[in-house]
Amino acid sequence: MLRRLVRRSYAVVRPLSTEVATTVKSTRSGGGNGITTSLEGGTSTATSNRGRDTLGRRLLSLIYAKRSAVIAISKWKEEGRPVRKYELNRIVQELRKHKRYKHALEVCEWMRVQDDIQLLYGDYAVHLDLIAKVRCMNSAKKFFEDLPDKLKVQTTCTALLHTYVQHKNIAKAESLMKKMSECGFLNYHLPYNHMLTLYISQGQLEKVLGLIQELKKNTSPDIVTYNLELAVFASQNNVEAAEKMLLELKKAKLDPDWITFSTLTNIYIKSSLQDKANSTLQEMEKKISRKARTAYVSLISLHTNLQNKDEVFRIWKEMKSIFRKVNDTEYSCIISLLLKLDEFGEAMNLYTEWEAVSVTKDTRIANLILAAYINKNEMEKAVNFHNKMMQKGISPSCTTWELLTRGYLKQKEMDKVLEVFKKTVTSVSKWDPDAKMVREMYHVVEEQGDIQVAEQLLVTLRHAKYVNTEIYNALLRTYVNAGKMPMIVEERMKKDNVEMDEETQKLIGITSKMTVTEVPNEIA
């Protein structure tokens, strides 16, 4: 919860303080009906010049990373067309927006070697950030170190700090903050917000309040600072401190945003203050706009937690009317929330709607419905749904097979459990062990005394590189319940590099007095 609140608060922070003219503007052209947009590195009119060739269009069309932005720019110049810095800045912004970091970096590197382009501090800050994204943190650090001293200013230092924060390197971030303080670079809130985000994300909450006090001595906090502080109070469920902070925020003549009211609502819900939660939700809704798309999903989620079904449907309907398309994340969120409200029929209707329009065939959304069937102990419907998933071209994931494993496990159908569990561990290059599920599987196998399934399960776990003393003890308990003596257990444990404990030795002693059972070759 805390990390989600921090990510949401931090998302509104400008990661870099730049002096680059990268704002995308829209103006209505005089005397015409078209809307002129400064996008893609050149002005184009949406009505009459929609297909006009621009440098921005060429660079944005370089979908594959192996294609070169430098070649595209050079070809543009060879055609006798001008290349303007402000256009390139806008192109870099668009490329970053679409996470096309390699091409954005190539544009920055091209600008840096042009004699007729004068770079500002912000250009170097953006360049540094892109190096960190495309290459690594150490490459970004070297870029900074190689800069002339006159360029090691507040802007570029903050960009390097942002890199350390993204890589969660507390030691380097703290060291840089100290140097920035010595240089007088901590006279604005952004570096502090970076550090606050880092401390909160790493659970070092004891450092947060002290840093906020230092910030207030040196400069004025912004709304992001207050939202980060509020996130800490939310993690502590400290209603009094949160309300006190809200008063301080208003006294500072700062306008709370939707994140502020969303976090406050979370605090009130956790404290069972439903009236206050509904009140802050109303304030939150007043703050959201088309630009803050994620706010709608947050609003729906909070209404779900308050069991406000009518509001959930109202806001979802409003959201669909505002945005032309609903993305997979939003469908996933609303379907899971409807399931939480026990509105399976509505959730299924939305799944059907998503299935009809989706081009991604995202298995995670289908898994929500599959899990709902399994949770309702409707295994036959779950299997039928799973089969339809695959017919529709939705490929099962590791989670899909894991859900089916749990479903069959609840019914104690161990042959089918073993069948789908094998698919669970082989569907990924490295299976992330679920110790609880493994214990539950062996618990049922022990009850049934099914040594064949117990042995096959051990083989599957061995292939997944997850064999330990607890698993061997469960295997031995199965043999005890079956009244059989396993063969070469000690040798197999040694081969698997598994130590025996006191229980292992006790179980081997018990089974040694039972009927001998040979281990089949395919299992041994």
UniProtKB/TrEMBL annotation:
Domain of life: Eukaryota
InterPro entries tied to this protein: PPR_rpt, PROP1-like_PPR_dom, TPR-like_helical_dom_sf
Gene3D superfamilies named among the record's database cross-references: Tetratricopeptide repeat domain
Skewed-composition ranges (Polar residues): 35-49
This protein's UniProt keywords: Repeat
Transmembrane spans: none
Listed Pfam families: PPR, PPR_2, PPR_long
Start and end residues of each PROP1-like PPR domain: 308-434
Ranges where the record places region Disordered: 23-50
GO CC field: mitochondrion
GO MF: mRNA binding
Residues in PPR repeats: 222-256, 362-396
Record family assignment: Belongs to the PPR family. P subfamily.
Name listed for the protein in its UniProt record: Pentatricopeptide repeat-containing protein
Organism: Solanum tuberosum
Gene: LOC102591148
